[in-house]
Amino acid sequence: MSTRLVLGCGSFGHALIEELRQTPGDLHVVSGDEGRVDSLRGENVPAELGAYDDPAVVEEVKAEDLPTVASVVVAGDDPDRNLAAIEVAREHYPDVPVVSYVGRDGTDAQREALEAAADRLVDPADIVPQRILQAAGRGGLRLRQLHRIVRELDGPLAVVMHDNPDPDAIASACALVQIAENAGGEAEPCYYGEISHQENLALVNLMEYDLTNLQAGDDLSRFAGFALVDHSRPGVNDQLPPDTPVDIVVDHHPPREPIEARFVDLRSDIGATSTLLTDYLRRLDVEPTTPVATGLLFGIRIDTKDFRREVSVDDYEAASYLLPYADTATLERVESPSVSVDTLETVGRAIRNREVHGEVLTSCVGRLHSRDALAQSADRLLDLREVTTTLVYGFKDGTIYMSARTRGTDLDVGETLREAFAQIGEAGGHADMAGAQLPLGLLGTVEEDADEDLSSVIADVVTDRFFETLRSRPNWDLVDIYGGGGEELPVGADEE
Predict the structure, then answer these.
(1) In whole angstroms, what is the distance from residue 372 CA to residue 198 CA?
(2) Which residues contact 129 (CB under 8 A, 6 or more apart)?
(3) I need a labelling partner for 188 at 20 to 30 A (CA). Which of 320, 385, 443, 463 fits?
(4) pLDDT at 77 over 80
(5) Distance, CA of 174 to CA of 168 (rounded, Å)
(6) Do 272 and 317 form a contact (C-beta atoms < 8 A)?
């Protein structure tokens, strides 16, 4: 059985290896990318960690593993290193054919040198026409439009996430920034609010994302354009002025109103905005950086609840593509962060203050330190026996915040919250996971520092509108909402 030695494993090398694995023969890869080597070994591809253009490394591989090979493929991304690797291959395997990839952004002189040294040269210029033909449909036209918009801007593009962004929004913004920079433009990933959820903080810190935290009222004149990711309207779930002209919108949530922007990509049939950005990277042949790939993979997993909620074939394909580029070891650390005392206290208040009516649980946690603790409380309370829907809410900085969850029902909580609260605030989300926020001013003259009185008034407003909407939902049988039909059990007894 013949063996093919692959020196270097950049974007071209990784794609090539996937093809070579489908043909007869053995493979052996040399790469200096530790993550890529680990990934290949996990796929049962023999891989060696080391500089692929280092004569000593290739000599050691030859002596220990590969005294004879049928062909050598040089597949790194650096043209100069590829040329050096060809020379190393010629020295150790003088009678073996050598195929080389030009590398990324190779000059004419580098191409000529590589063509003279290798038996066959693979030039991206030969591949591009095929890729254009493959992408000549609507998707290809849209991406060319995206590139054109970015290049035409006379200054930086603000890539704005929704307020208090989650991993899907964070990763999508960082990916769009990489795409913009690859097109020769400038871009900044921006957000309003805070990143307080422990997993989100861990992602930002461990991946060292350089994010811009905007404040309400900031001068935005330094930005030449605006892009919205994971939401679709300025001033709705972000603090941009509502009349901000938007250039780009990329989102997977269904819009409530027509969206105005120069480039709009809304696909509610997929599980995460990160999937859309991954598709862009693949179509544009932009290899994601490790932080971007890691974030996108995490974003897909979070928004699809590890591929158990609203998942599509595109989500699976995107995750499969991202995996070789992602730092899975760091991702494990992101998924197991420490929990803050404030979060634990909020979850505790949610448990203590819960009210169960039928299969619906509501809980007012009062004053909030962190909005993200609401979502964690709603998730945690959904584990209670015989509870299928949760709504947890509290107040902070003049705003009432809500987080809702449901499982195993025909109820669409995203649509329910929109119907209940969109006319007096902001609301939306998925069928099984949603949120809303209302200005405290709608409650009139209640003093915000009177926590107990305020909580009572908020509870009346929120639960009345929520249950009234629930009762009007089709195919939703709510038993004894106000009659105490649902029995409240001790906390220790109703956990599965």
Answers:
(1) 9
(2) none
(3) 320
(4) yes
(5) 10
(6) no
pLDDT digits (tens, 9 = 90+) for 361-412: 999 999 888 787 898 899 889 888 888 999 999 998 889 999 999 987 778 8
- Report d(CA 260, CA 245) in Å as an integer: 8
Answer yes or no: are the C-beta atoms of 404 and 361 closer than 8 Å. Answer: no
Q: Which residues contact 301 (CB under 8 A, 6 or more apart)?
A: 307, 319
Question: Residue 45 sits in a domain of what CATH number?
Answer: 3.40.50.720
Helix (H, G, I), strand (E, B) or coil at 204: helix
pLDDT above 90 (res 255): no
Average pLDDT over residues 50-71: 81
266 and 211 in a single domain? The answer is yes
Instruction: Look at residue 33 and tell me if it is in a domain.
Output: yes
Identify whether the C-beta of residue 179 lies closer than 8 Å to the C-beta of residue 280: yes
Contact 187, 181 (CB under 8 A): yes
Question: In 10 A of CB 97, how many CB atoms?
Answer: 13
Task: Let me know: does 88 contact 74? Beta carbons within 8 Å.
Answer: no
Provide the domain limits for residue 92: 3-124
Q: Are strands 433-439 and 399-406 parallel, antiparallel or unpaired?
A: antiparallel
The total domain count for the chain is 3
Are the C-beta atoms of residues 209 and 170 closer than 8 Å to each other?
yes
Tokens standing for residue 40: 């290949």
How far is the C-alpha of 324 from the C-alpha of 223, rounded, in Å?
Answer: 34
Give CA–CA dist 353/456, Å, rounded: 11
Task: Give 104's strand partners.
Answer: none
Token couple for 43:
């796929």
How far apart CA 35 and CA 47 sit, in angstroms, is 11
**Who's near 154: CB < 8 A, 6+ residues apart?**
224
Instruction: Give yes or no for residue 145 having a pLDDT over 60.
Output: yes
Number of residues that make up the chain:
496
How much is the pTM?
0.55
> d(Cα 179, Cα 149) in Å, to the nearest integer?
12
Instruction: Let me know the angle formed at the C-alpha of 449 by 445 and 452, rounded to the nearest 5 degrees.
Output: 90
Which of 93, 60, 443, 414 has the alpha carbon at shortest distance from 237? Answer: 414
